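Incident log, structure service

09:12 report received: a user says their structure output differs between two submissions of the same chain.
09:20 pulled the input from the user's history:
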Amino acid sequence: MIRFGIAGIPLTSKGRTFIESVEDTHTLGLNALEVQLLRVNVEERPALDYAGMRPRDVDSTIIVDVLREDENGTYSGIGIDTVIEEDDIVQELFWNMARNYEDLRDGGELAKELDVRLSIHAPYYMDLLNQGEMAERSYNHLKWALIIGKAIQAKRVITHTGFYAEPKKDSLKIASRVYTDLSKSYSTESGYPVIGVETSGKSEIFGSVSDVISLAKKVKEIEPILNFPHVHSLNGGSLIEVKDFDAVISEFLKFAKGDLYTEFAGVDYTDHMEKKLMAIKHGDLKFETLAESLSVLDDDVTVISSSPLLEHDSQYMNIMYLRAVSKKFQKKAQLKKAVG
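09:34 re-ran on a clean worker, output below:
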């Protein structure tokens, strides 16, 4: 099965909530939605008002961690599978798409009922490879995305890794350590989504095809995510013919966690560097060519539109794919008739 979906809220949506995004995605005839964990704010506050409650039962906010004091007076996170005590500190996540865990749960159940496959994208600006405040903030954002992802029953959390470390050769080692730690602390066995590490479209950011494939070999729990415009840009326009798409798809399929998860848009690039994403009819990265490759593929694939036209281009890709499949069957029928 080939699923088509969008990254973010449909442009035609009147509402801006998670639940409304699921409904509108289904109404548009699409069956995949990449929820964007953007513009979130996390604050710490005394937990007195929530004492005796479990974080998932609080209806006024989304609590993503409970900090509890140890015998040395140090507060550390103990997760959300606990009853909150008076002396605890809670970390509250404020997000304009959902108010509480009930909203998350209801949206996830609705998506399942409507057969809309959910994923979630961590904030786009991440820097997990260099020490300091930004690395800690990026780690926390990915952790929170995993917690939200579990609550909505998303299959995977998509993330960028960040700028190469200094020296650059240490980047894979650091990335392996970070993702190993996260995948153990927030494992799929405990109901958390798979961590999907996305390819990059810029030379200074970790995420070449070689980077993410090497990472997947070292950390079996993570999944490399194939972003076609990023790969195309970084390699100076490498995806032109059907065989080019076939080759990169074959490489990523080896590490896919079920369906092959991909992103597509038109792209403007120069000197092996992505400049901006565009509508898919623009530029030399052609979905019609990818559709030919997908039409003969037996594996499940999800194609997420990251185009500025979002649902319009996702619907267009679906049409182009169906046309490619139709042509394939027409050729088979003609060949069978000729042989007969």
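09:41 both user submissions now match this output. Likely a transient worker issue. Closing.
09:42 reviewer note: The chain has a mean pLDDT of 95. The chain is about 35% helix and 20% strand.
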